[in-house]
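hey can u check if this looks right to u? its 130 residues, i copy pasted from the old doc so theres a chance i mangled smth
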Amino acid sequence: MRLLAVDLGDKRTGLAVGDTETRSVFPIATLHVPRGEGLLAAVIDAVQEHGADTVVIGLPINMDGTEGPRAELTRAFGDQLAERSGVPVSYQDERLTSFEAEYRMRGQQVPRGTDAHAAAVLLEEHLDTR
């Protein structure tokens, strides 16, 4: 099964793809589109372009395990995405994925931000929990 991971942000959103059979994961893009209709359309385009069977969205859970307003916004985006794309959406706890991505990329020359790499970490964690 082909998966598309989304590290959702207000201004930048990271995307990664992976496969459940090979368990391979690759960061693919950072979308520089603010949250809203434009971002929704861009993610739907990525779903179609990469043939994703499922979308995994990082869920911003508080360090104490509770869900706050950011998680609510994320779930609303996921509901819209599932409805418009026809592809199921699941959620993965994204706590510390950006930190892990930055740690892995220490010393590398990476253009602005780690959003796509954070999406890859998120997807790796999702595959590990399956």
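Strands lie at 2-7, 13-19, 25-31, 54-59, 89-93.
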